[in-house]
Design a protein that fits this description.
With 287 residues, this protein is of the alpha/beta class. The strands form three sheets. A six-stranded parallel beta sheet has the order 1-11-8-7-5-6. Strands 3-2-4 form a three-stranded parallel beta sheet, with helices on both faces. Strand 2, helix 2 and strand 3 form a beta-alpha-beta unit. Helix 1 runs parallel beside helix 10. The radius of gyration is 19 Å and the shape is globular. The two termini are 36 Å apart.
């Protein structure tokens, strides 16, 4: 039996309708949630991602502010801009689109964003707070993955979850969030010996390695839930994930497609975090 497909687009669409209602409530109380997006340089992929984020803001009624800087912008210019946005009461969330030009220290930029406006969840406070489950804003992609897993109805507690990929943006925070849900968690990375030995025992397999076709059917446990975070562009222009979708779907119980799985949820969680930031003011309610 083929796996059931977890439709990230459908879930994201439903959540955005709900979030638009929350924004309308805030507006009635005189608060318009605002997201400032800082983009540096002219990377085509970054431009695409930013357009998608601004479109999502428009759908939900969130005001967006785009600050586009040239590729030769200095670190001081970026930090000064972030300082201004930190102090701007109309801005509830700040997103700096990655990657950044080499002359700019990514860590210093992310640490400069005010913790209560770090809607990407990349500030050291938010990342570190995941260890005790008290981050102000969970990182968008791992949080989106968590909601996708919840769509399956399986109980994560006690299950073996394997995360392939140990990045600071997805892999590590994802592992911490699964651990918070009382899963038994294994993290695999580029130096892991015999990857299949670990993945074959996973009840929940989250793959975020950036390698097309890395996970093939013989590496997946019968009935596993498989979440593919990878987004890879092949030479022919086709977008694929890290999982052999057609092969693995015959062994998994649930699987996410690429595109249409995790991607829409990442953007939607950004909107969610921005609204929550606005609701830290004395108005509205939000779940």
């Amino acid at each position: 039996m083929s796996a059931r497909v977890i439709d990230g687009r459908a879930l994201a669409t439903g959540l955005r309708v709900k979030y638009a209602e929350s924004v309308a409530e805030l507006v009635r109380n005189g608060i318009v949630p605002g997201l400032a997006v800082v983009m540096i340089g002219s990377d085509p992929a970054s431009h695409l991602y930013v357009r998608n984020k601004i479109r999502a803001c428009d759908e939900c009624g969130v005001r967006s502010f785009l600050h586009a800087l040239s590729a030769d912008a200095t670190e001081a210019e970026v930090l000064d801009l972030i300082g201004e946005l930190n102090a701007d009461p109309s801005v509830h969330g700040i997103l700096v689109q990655l990657p950044l030009p080499p002359q700019i220290d990514v860590r210093r930029v992310l640490e400069t964003i005010a913790v209560d406006k770090d809607v990407d969840g990349f500030h050291l406070y938010n990342v570190g707070a995941l260890t005790v489950g008290e981050s102000i804003f969970p990182p968008c992609t791992p949080y989106g993955v968590q909601l996708l897993i919840d769509q399956t109805g399986i109980e994560i507690e006690g299950k073996h979850a394997v995360v392939v990929g140990a990045s600071n943006i997805v892999g590590k925070p994802m592992a911490l969030m699964l651990l918070q849900r009382l899963a038994t968690v294994t993290i695999c990375h580029a130096r892991t010996v015999n990857l299949a030995h670990h993945t074959i025992s996973a009840d929940v397999l989250v793959v975020a390695a950036g390698k097309p076709g890395l996970i093939v059917p013989q590496m997946v446990k019968q009935g596993a839930v498989v979440i593919d975070v990878g987004i890879n562009k092949l030479a022919d222009g086709k977008i694929v994930g890290d999982v052999d979708f057609e092969g693995v779907r015959d062994k998994a119980s649930w699987i996410t497609p690429v595109p249409g799985g995790v991607g829409p949820m990442t953007v939607t969680m950004l909107i969610r975090n921005t609204i929550r930031s606005a609701q830290r003011l004395p108005a509205g309610s939000f779940d």
